[in-house]
Amino acid sequence: MKNFFITIFCAFFLSGNRQYITKKENKPNVIVILIDDAGYADFGFMGSKDLETPNIDKLAKSGVIFTDAHVSATVCAPSRAGLITGKYQQRFGFEANGTGYGDSGEIGLSDDVTTMADVFKNNGYKTMALGKWHLGKDESDHPNQRGFDEFYGFETGSRSYFPIQNPRKGKMLQNNGKRVVFDGYLTDVLGDQSVKYIEDNKENPFFMYLAYNAVHTPMEAKKEDLEKFKDHPRQYLAAMTWSLDQNIGKLQQKLEELGIADNTLIYFLSDNGGAANNDSSGGPLKGWKGNKFEGGHRVPFVVSWPAQIKGGQTFKGLSSSLDIFTTSIAAANIKNDDSLILDGVNLLPFLKGDKTGNPHDKLFWRKLEEAGARIGDYKMIRLKNYGSVLYNLKEDLGETINLEKQDPDQYQLLQKELTNWEAKMKAPLWQEEQDWMQVTHHIHQRLMENKEILYTNPNKMKRVLRGDTNKKQRLKRFNRNN
After folding, report:
1. Nearest-CA neighbor of 330 among 46, 17, 3, 30?
2. How far is it, in rounded angstroms, from Cα 237 to Cα 216?
3. Which one of 52, 141, 279, 398 is CB 3.0 to 4.6 Å from 108, fit for a cystine?
4. Rounded distance, CA 271 to CA 37, Å?
């Protein structure tokens, strides 16, 4: 009888202890929801009054809203390279958009760089990438070769939201290299697939990189959504954003149904600022996608992990998309390999109240002829063959008052820090198309001078220059400045 009670006691103790161990060792699922070309102010949680985003707002309420979060590049491809590797993409020469033009070919991600998916896969996670890739189209660049067990998406930077009859390889929707023929609207297709992957992998920890191409051009939406917003001044953007929100809602609902929502760490952000051609709004920010003003790289950013982070918070500290890698492996209790150079910071101590202040005291940006540096409240933008401007973002978030001459000490400090940072980076492995470089130079110069932008794409540039009454002199002046 004594042995019987001892056996019962041991079984009870071990059962309770096993539950404790399971909880302690229960690694979180990690989901990065990366959207495309969304404006800083185009969500309810960021103050939008005209775009409907109830599910995204619900996600934001469950976690922490960042107001001073930035991506590492102002255009799609290098921004994604920085996020997925957790380091400045300039460390491996991935600086410009696309994945190599002209003689450079399809370079893509450096073969020796480690991705988040590599680390999670090596530590027992199921890994999956959905949606837009845009990190190279060579075989060695394919998501299945970069740590992802599953890839359901397309390789290039943009494509139609509706079926393409004979798509070329880069625009083809695929599952692990095999073409997927679909009906309907691509945002819905990706949303449905994200739910399926969660259902299939609910028993084990997973890492999902969910990269919607919404709200990138082409501006295409479902008929019923266009009808819903038929009187909206930004009809197509409103419809596309609504569809995006509905599909993120599907994801949230499935996580809740399966009982794994609390232990799922979710990031939500845009890959860069809103574009000049999709009706997006940066709110109080100057500039947009492609330039080094705040509207180009300050993005809506949410982190939600209900089991560990109190919801309903707003965080004002200087932070970066580079932090996603470092924070995620810390959450999963994965030890950082000493050989893995990461430029991000673990955000968890800041979000749990163990630390205060700014995760970063400085951040840097560079794309070919344009560069930027941020130290504390001060921001500098440098344009090749033109000069630099200095702003105090605390006093002048709209970046209109150049303090270069009024605060020479700060100006020299940022110049020095930018130069020191550049010395640690590689030269860019490829350039962008010359027409686009000229357009980008024009936009930066006009914004630095607080002047109206004359053109935002190569076709408009050519029309504007053709229409000048003194065309030859203007072209000469333009070429000299570029």
Report:
1. 30
2. 9
3. 141
4. 6
Task: State the pLDDT at residue 467.
Answer: 82
Q: Provide mean pLDDT across the span 431-444.
A: 95
- Spatial contact of 339 and 112, defined as CB atoms under 8 Å apart: no
Query: Which residues have CB under 8 Å from 359's CB, separation 6+?
Result: 317, 318, 319, 320, 323, 345, 347, 350
Note the CATH number of domain 362-482.
3.30.1120.10
Q: Please, what is the Cα angle at 62 between 214 and 204, to 5 degrees?
A: 80
Evaluate whether 28-351 and 362-482 have a shared fold.
Answer: no
* pLDDT at position 103: 54
Find where tokens 């929502």 sit.
Answer: 261
SS3 for 336-381 is CCCCCCCCCCCCHHHHCCCCCCCCCCEEEEEECCEEEEEECCEEEE
User: Are the C-beta atoms of 403 and 381 separated by less than 8 Å?
Assistant: no
What's at 447, amino acid-wise? L
Give the strand order in the sheet containing 362-367.
362-367, 370-375, 378-383, 387-392
SS3 420: helix
Contact 435, 457 (CB under 8 A): no
User: Does the reported pTM lie above 0.85?
Assistant: yes
Domain ranges of the chain: 28-351, 362-482
Beta partners for 268?
33, 302
pLDDT in tens, 339-350: 899 999 999 999
| CATH fold group of domain 28-351 | Alkaline Phosphatase, subunit A (3.40.720)
Question: Which residues in 202-356 belong to E strands, given as ranges?
Answer: 206-211, 264-270, 301-304, 313-315, 319-320
Say if CB 312 and CB 319 are below 8 A apart. Answer: no
Please return the burial class of 101, using the count of CB atoms within 10 Å of its CB with bins 0-12, 13-18 and 19+. Answer: middle
| Contacting residues for 292 by C-beta, under 8 A, at least 6 apart | 74, 365, 367, 370, 371, 372, 381, 444
Range in 360-369, 440-449, 470-479 the model is least confident about = 470-479
